[in-house]
Amino acid sequence: MSATPAVPTGPAAVRTSPRQRWVLLQAHPQQAEQLASAARLPLVLAELLVARGITEAHAAFAFLNPDLSHLHDPFLMLGMTAAVERLDAIVAGVGSAGTVTGLTRYFRNVAPNVEFVLADPVGSILRHYHETRSIGEAHPYKIEGVGEDFIPTATDFTVIDRVLSCGDRDGLNMARRLAREEAIFVGGSGGMATWVALQVAKDLPADGLVVVLLPDTGERYLTKVHSDEWMRDNHLLDPAVTRVEDVVGGKRRHVPRLLSVQAGEPLRKALALVEQHDVTQIPVFRGTEVVGTVYDSEILKRVLEDSSSLDQPVETVMAEPLPVVRSDEAVEQVTRQLASRIPAVLVSDNGKITGILTRFDMLQFIAGGE
Predict the structure, then answer these.
(1) Which CATH architecture has domain 241-367?
(2) 122 in Cβ contact with 163 (< 8 Å)
């Protein structure tokens, strides 16, 4: 083959083998440099194919192929068309843009009043381009498979009504919420699209209907979106959708879920637990009932006054019991309690105290530190 030609800055054609159909590339003049490496891919591949004697191959090159919009799923169209009289809006993210453009062009003909909303990650340039028709500056984001730092060739912004941005925290936590509450297992792009769909739905009447496309499976993101550790390390866990049990079960310190003493036991035992596990409060039980709390500062104060007090019952320095919260309660509510003068809360599961959550536990969980 001849040398690789210059990257086109307008409508141009590049073929991937001597006898192959032409692949149309639409490159925006402002995107020429950004598309340079991508646009050369068909030519590089063509050289490899011809060298191996393969002359009938066809390379789709999704991001550079405007014909993708003709490949939208007819069964999806049929299902959505059946509800077209009740449909208010369609929400989807953009990858290569074939599905979105195909959907929007189709429904412009059969249902011109349906609103088409593009979901875009904060950091992508698509919203800025839709509003200004200029290429803005992209920034890193964690939601994968959607949004771009260039404009995919198949994107037709003339049929998009508006673009709404979604941040990483909102989109990724929505994906986790879908799995937890709806048994819908998707990745971050599906969470982003759902979050945007809910914003759209807020402006509609109670009987409004929004269709949202969820393009991916959560199976590919088990070590990312659906990993508590990864979410913590990236400071993305949202207390509003995190439960108390998530925090208690995710403690990184090697401390039992619940340390306690029984009423009548000596202070010496409470002090031993404080020293061994480096904790500041120990719940006091009478049987299965919580009756009080012993704090390290009170133990120290009593021992300094009288060393023999270590053999006295814990009730001699016992304070009020810690508040009790349910294990399925939202962390956001518990955080408010811990932000006040309450140093810790006890966690109950089906009426039984099963753990303790301290300020330090909460700070460690949010920060993702060791």
Answers:
(1) Roll (3.10)
(2) no
For residue 128, give the amino acid letter.
H
Residue 213 in tokens: 């496309």
Compute the distance between CA of residue 162 and CA of residue 106 in angstroms, rounded to an integer: 17
User: Of the ranges 46-60, 160-174, 218-232, 350-364, which is most confident?
Assistant: 160-174
CATH number for the region 67-237 comes to: 3.40.50.1100
Q: How confident is the model at residue 48 (pLDDT cuts 50, 70, 90)?
A: low
Among 110-114, 248-252, 356-360, the range scoring the smallest mean pLDDT is 248-252
Please say whether the beta carbons of 300 and 270 come within 8 A: no
Q: Which residues contact 270 (CB under 8 A, 6 or more apart)?
A: 261, 282, 294, 299, 314
Sign of the CA dihedral running 122, 127, 131, 132: positive
Q: Among candidates 332, 333, 331, 325, which has minimal Cα distance to 351?
A: 325
Domain with CATH 3.40.50.1100 in the chain: 67-237
Domain with CATH 3.10.580.10 in the chain: 241-367
Could you give the 3-state DSSP secondary structure of residue 61?
coil
Distances (CA, A) of 166 to 171, 190, 250, 263, 270: 6, 11, 27, 52, 49
